[in-house]
Structures are given as structure tokens and as C-alpha cells.
């Protein structure tokens, strides 16, 4: 009886909600109104409970009113779908289906000849560099380097001096105990140097980029004869993408995809954000790389005011570790080296066939220019969500001052999304794309930016209209860019030296064939 009495207000809330939605004149208006109601319900439900794991069931009365009172537009056998108030907004299943996996499954277990780590020769200190995902790849590489060098790996130090000035320690971002346990058969990992070695002389080295096993065995390993501690001054791209022993490649995958789990508070809130996004129905995670650091670094100013362009140029000029200062923004864009703008992303999603009622999660930091640059995307896709909209200020407070921790929340929501679309092929895009391959080749649409900007320019100049023709062109050019299994791409023909390595597809973006096997079981 008590539960029945509690259910009545919930039922009235559902009835009022449906009545308000029925008054909305368009699917987009209905979606906007539904978002407001939907998110306000989250705010009241989560008061006093900062973390709830996504696998925990929702409160009984919440489930009860959904099952008994919510209309089809707000309820389904597994979730609420906010597809607007008209039938033509119903999602096309083909938009959400992943590309065929062709029975490729992860296989990262070591070979029969792989042995537990021998007695270490010394200690490897690692100073990581870059943002969250650059550090994640670097840490995974350093796990493999520690194995090659037969070293004890000290928990890596995260970058605290880069653009974001994030003071997070390893245990603030990653589950330190899980990391150590997961690698127990691969590398000895300790939290700190022994006290007697803290002030001892160390051999500090910038390991050569894209190096193979021979480099570490021939040039770095002899350093143990003079020092007990080797310090890696940087961690990014210190291992080659290709032509490494199979067991080393599989170890890199175990480190990246399994050992580097996020810290429990991040995992908890990240999973809760996933739960809240999925309550809207199938959703797109859009990595909208339209942030100040990206635009300043790349020199991309299309669609910006002169004041904004000058600000970005000043940032680039004054950031000493960014080597390239003089950049032609028009050439960058025409060559496909710029992130898509929010307006262009909206045109892209529409051309792919996603209706305006599609829930879209914005995985990004602060968008440069704020809402002024988001107007057109918001008008096309009004169910535009973010961690700041899905979570309360109280829930975000422990993470809000730390860029890496906030990025980790976006990472979780992106990996678990029904569709992932990056506006730029940066470190997060590559990391998430690889993780989604590892979890069953989930649908990941990689925009062909070079081809798209040519089409969008034609639209802007009046030579081409939005509609069926543009949609067919864009859909066809992305038919084979949806995350299906394929062998990792090698270097671009004609490139030499470091440019040759840089042009290769990154190992963690697509660890096939090294970390995948083709199952013989047709049910896989």
C-alpha cells in the first residue's frame, strides 16, 4: 500500500508531462520541453546522492510511473525515447547498427612462452606529457618499455605543466590498485621509489620517438650499469606502432584497454551519466573539438571573428612548446586539418539522416565562443546534452577543477554511446575509437573532413542545397568509415623520417591485427 500511495504523485507527474508535450507544436519543441522536464527530474532524484552506479536500478516509483503512465514517446521496454511528438521522428534502426564485426574479437592473452617478470634490474620513472588521452597512450607504452627493460615501473607522474595546468595525480584519475594488480604477471609496479633512491643520481633520457625493441635493449638497457633509476622525461609516441613482438603489442593492449581503468568516483559518475543519456533513447556522443587550445594549436579560424582569431594567434605564439607559429587557416581547412565547426557538424548529422529528435551528448571542454557558436547545432538537434547538463553542480564539484578528470567522464560516455562521432582526429578521438573497436566494433563514424568542407562550401555559396542529393553524397562517402574491422593503416606513400611514422595510423586507434583474432564461432 505504501508503494501504491507513492506511485500516485509519480503518475500525476507523468500525465502532466505528457499533456505538456502534446501541446508542443513541433517535434523539436517537444524535444526541448521534454529535456527540461527530464533533466529536472534527475536533479531532484539525485539530491544528496552524488554517485550511483549505472547498473543499479532506478527507484521503484520512477520505474512504476514509466511502466504504467508514460506514453510511447517517453517509454519503451528498456528506456525513455524522446523522439518528439510526430511519427516521422522515429529512429531508423540502420542509423544505430554497428558495422559487421566479421567475428573479430579481442585476443590479448600472452603466448605460452611469455614468462612472469624476472628480478628487475632497476626502476623506471615516467613523466607523462599532454592531455588525458595522450598520457593514457604514453603510460601504456611505458608499461611495455618497462617489460622490455626488465624494470620496476613506478606509478607514472601525470603532466601538471601543460596547457590545462591540471594538478591531478595518477590515483585521482586512474584506479591505482587495479592498475598494479592487472599487470602483476607483466611488470612489477610500485607506487614510489625506495627512500634510499629518492635523492640518488638518475639517468634522465628523452626516449627516441617510435622506437623498436632494439633501441631500448641496445641504447637504454646499458644505462643500468651506471644508475639504478632511469627517468623518462616524456612518454608520448616512444614506441613504434608496428613491427614489435606480438607479446609486447598484446601487453600494450592489456595496459590501455584493461589496466587503465578510471578511479572509482569517476567510473561511478561516468556510468551514471551514461544511464541518464540512455534514458533518452539511443544517443550520439559527439567529440566536438572546438575548444580554445585546439583552435589555437591548429590555427583554424573559419567562422570566427577577427578578435577571436587574434586571440588564438596570440595563444599559439606564446605557447613555447608549440613549434609551428605561422599557419594559413584557409589551407589548413581545405586540407582537412581543422575540426568541423558546430554548424558543420549539424549539417553532417542531418545529412546522415539523424532526425532533430536525436539525443546528442557533447563530449568536450568549454566550447570556444560559448553559446554563440552553438546556436545552429542547437537549432538542428535540441536534445543537446553534456556532463554539465546531466549532472548537478554538487555531483561535478569534485572533478570540475581538473581537466583530466572531466575529460575522463566524457571518455566513459563516449565509449558507451550508441554512435560516436569525432569532429577532429585528435588523441581522444583515436583513443575512444580504439576502445570501441575493442568492445565489439561499436559504430564510430569518422568524418571525411577534407571532402566535407568542399561540399559545405558549395552549400554556403548556393551551388548545392541541403537535401536528398547532399545526403546521398555524404552517406555514400562515409559508408566504409563506421568502425568495421580492418588492418591498421601503414605510412602514407612518399613520406620519410619522422613524418613517415607520424602518418601511420596510431596503434591504440586500431590494434588490428595485433590484439584481435577472427573467431570461428558464427555466433560471435
From TrEMBL:
GO terms for biological process: fucose metabolic process. GO terms for molecular function: glycosyltransferase activity. The keyword Transmembrane applies. It is found in: Membrane. GO terms for cellular component: cytoplasm; membrane. Residues 478-490 have a biased composition (Basic residues). It holds the Pfam family O-FucT. Pathway: Glycan metabolism. Belongs to the glycosyltransferase GT106 family. This is O-fucosyltransferase family protein.
Amino acid at each position: 500500500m505504501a508503494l501504491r500511495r507513492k506511485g500516485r504523485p509519480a503518475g500525476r507527474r507523468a500525465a502532466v508531462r505528457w499533456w505538456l508535450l502534446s501541446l508542443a507544436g513541433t517535434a523539436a519543441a517537444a524535444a526541448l520541453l521534454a529535456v527540461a522536464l527530464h533533466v529536472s527530474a534527475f536533479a531532484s532524484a539525485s539530491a544528496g546522492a552524488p554517485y550511483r552506479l549505472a547498473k543499479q536500478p532506478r527507484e521503484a516509483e520512477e520505474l512504476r510511473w514509466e511502466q504504467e503512465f508514460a506514453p510511447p514517446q517517453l517509454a519503451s521496454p528498456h528506456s525513455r525515447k524522446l523522439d518528439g511528438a510526430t511519427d516521422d521522428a522515429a529512429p531508423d534502426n540502420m542509423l544505430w547498427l554497428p558495422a559487421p564485426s566479421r567475428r573479430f574479437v579481442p585476443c590479448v592473452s600472452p603466448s605460452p612462452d611469455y614468462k612472469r617478470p624476472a628480478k628487475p634490474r632497476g626502476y623506471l620513472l615516467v613523466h607523462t606529457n599532454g592531455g588525458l588521452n595522450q598520457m593514457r597512450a604514453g603510460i601504456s607504452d611505458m608499461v611495455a618499455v618497462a617489460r622490455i627493460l626488465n624494470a620496476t615501473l613506478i606509478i607514472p607522474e601525470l603532466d601538471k605543466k601543460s596547457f590545462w595546468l591540471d594538478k591531478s595525480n595518477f590515483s585521482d584519475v586512474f584506479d591505482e590498485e587495479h592498475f598494479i594488480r592487472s599487470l602483476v604477471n607483466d611488470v612489477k609496479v610500485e607506487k614510489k621509489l625506495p627512500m634510499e633512491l629518492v635523492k640518488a643520481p638518475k639517468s634522465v633520457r628523452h626516449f627516441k620517438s617510435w622506437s623498436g625493441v632494439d633501441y631500448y635493449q641496445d641504447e637504454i638497457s646499458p644505462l643500468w650499469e651506471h644508475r639504478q633509476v632511469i627517468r623518462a622525461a616524456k612518454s608520448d609516441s616512444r614506441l613504434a606502432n608496428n613491427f614489435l613482438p606480438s607479446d609486447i603489442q598484446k601487453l600494450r593492449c592489456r595496459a590501455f584497454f584493461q589496466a587503465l581503468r578510471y578511479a572509482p568516483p569517476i567510473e561511478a559518475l561516468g556510468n551514471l551519466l551514461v544511464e541518464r543519456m540512455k534514458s533518452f533513447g539511443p544517443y550520439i556522443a559527439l567529440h566536438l573539438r572546438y575548444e580554445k587550445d585546439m583552435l589555437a594549436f591548429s590555427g583554424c579560424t573559419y567562422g570566427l571573428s577577427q578578435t577571436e582569431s587574434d586571440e588564438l594567434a596570440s595563444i599559439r605564439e606564446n605557447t613555447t612548446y608549440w613549434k609551428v607559429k605561422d599557419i594559413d587557416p584557409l589551407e589548413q581547412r581545405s586540407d582537412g586539418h581543422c575540426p568541423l565547426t558546430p554548424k558543420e557538424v549539424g549539417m553532417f548529422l542531418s545529412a546522415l539522416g539523424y532526425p532533430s529528435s536525436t539525443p546528442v551528448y557533447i563530449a568536450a571542454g568549454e566550447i570556444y565562443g560559448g553559446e554563440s557558436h552553438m546556436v545552429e547545432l542547437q537549432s538542428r538537434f535540441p536534445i543537446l546534452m553534456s556532463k554539465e547538463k546531466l549532472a548537478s553542480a554538487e555531483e561535478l564539484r569534485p572533478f570540475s577543477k581538473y581537466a583530466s578528470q572531466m575529460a575522463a567522464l566524457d571518455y566513459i560516455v563516449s565509449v558507451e554511446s550508441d554512435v560516436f562521432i569525432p569532429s577532429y582526429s585528435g588523441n581522444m578521438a583515436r583513443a575512444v575509437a580504439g576502445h570501441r573497436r575493442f568492445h565489439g566494433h561499436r559504430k564510430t563514424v569518422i568524418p571525411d573532413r577534407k571532402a566535407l568542407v568542399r561540399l559545405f562550401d558549395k552549400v554556403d555559396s548556393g551551388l548545392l542545397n541541403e537535401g536528398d542529393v547532399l545526403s546521398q553524397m555524404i552517406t555514400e562517402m562515409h559508408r566504409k568509415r563506421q568502425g568495421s574491422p580492418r588492418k591498421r593503416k601503414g605510412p602514407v606513400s612518399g613520406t620519410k623520417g619522422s613524418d613517415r611514422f607520424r602518418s601511420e595510423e596510431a596503434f591504440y586507434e586500431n590494434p588490428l591485427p595485433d590484439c584481435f583474432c577472427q573467431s570461428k564461432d558464427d555466433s560471435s
